[in-house]
Amino acid sequence: MTGGISQSTELQHFLFLVFLLVYGTTWLGNLTIIITVIFDSHLHTPMYLLLANLAFLDFSESSVTAPKMLKDLLYQRKTISFNGCLTQMFFFHFIGGTVVFFLVVMAPDRYVAIYKPLHYLSIMNRSMCMGLVAGAWLGGFVHSIVQLALIIQLPFCGPNTLDSLFLALNCFVFIIVSYVQIFKTVLRIPTEQGRHKAFSTCLPHLTVVSLLICTGSFAYLKLTSSSESGLDLVVGVLYSLVPPVMNPIIYSMRNKDIKAAWKKLIVWWLFTKS
């Protein structure tokens, strides 16, 4: 099979630099979060366990498609074997599906943190967290197996040029229902300061979910056009690259615990160097 974003060599080289920068930033940002959560004992909590898993999934998801895409942007031969394509599809659906399941289980986590803060640690205990993590990974695996089983039933005769694109549409009903309950609870908080603190608790997760929905929806609607421009494919590729690179920024930008942990890691690193 063959495919590509554009036949223009100049545009391909430009896109190579752009996507390489995005891919490198994705790795750096998500690995920083993982290392921070691992080495700071104050972050060994249910929320940061889920966040570290999400960070691992983010750079893994981009690693499924980005290296092959970067190679194709540099070389004229843009082919992939049938088995290689199926393998790529399996891991993309596996990781992408698991990301969605993690976003789903993080919604009730935020709900408990706001609705029952005094019982948060007793409800979100170690067993519950391990069960949620295992369930998310298992859900992503089952989703990928089902998708792959449907894909291999399709006819692959005829032209062997395919658009280099992956698009997943997922159900966010559970997340929406959870946030309806969260907002109803927050609005019942008597003080403005309390409402602001509660909204700040769930704002990063809601932003990440919105970003995933918007990029996926925009890519899907854009690709229904009859345009022959390679920009359609760029939009599709950004669907799998933009959320992973933005998630670390969104989760760390307003998070005092993450910032404090970064400062301690920097001080420790400078001290060991000196």
UniProtKB/TrEMBL annotation:
Key words of the record: Cell membrane, G-protein coupled receptor, Membrane, Olfaction, Receptor, Sensory transduction, Transducer, Transmembrane, Transmembrane helix
Subcellular localization: Cell membrane
Keyword Hydrolase listed: no
Pfam families named in the record: 7tm_1 (PF00001)
SUPFAM superfamilies (UniProt xref): Family A G protein-coupled receptor-like (SSF81321)
Transmembrane segments: 14-39, 86-107, 128-152, 164-182, 203-221, 233-253
A single GO molecular function term of this UniProt record: G protein-coupled receptor activity
GO cellular component: plasma membrane
Entries under InterPro entries matching the protein: GPCR_Rhodpsn, GPCR_Rhodpsn_7TM, Olfact_rcpt, Olfactory_GPCR
Gene3D superfamilies linked: Rhodopsin 7-helix transmembrane proteins
Domain G-protein coupled receptors family 1 profile residue range list: 29-251
PROSITE patterns linked: G_PROTEIN_RECEP_F1_2
Membrane topology, from the record: Multi-pass membrane protein
Name this protein carries in UniProt: G-protein coupled receptors family 1 profile domain-containing protein
Organism, as annotated: Chrysemys picta bellii
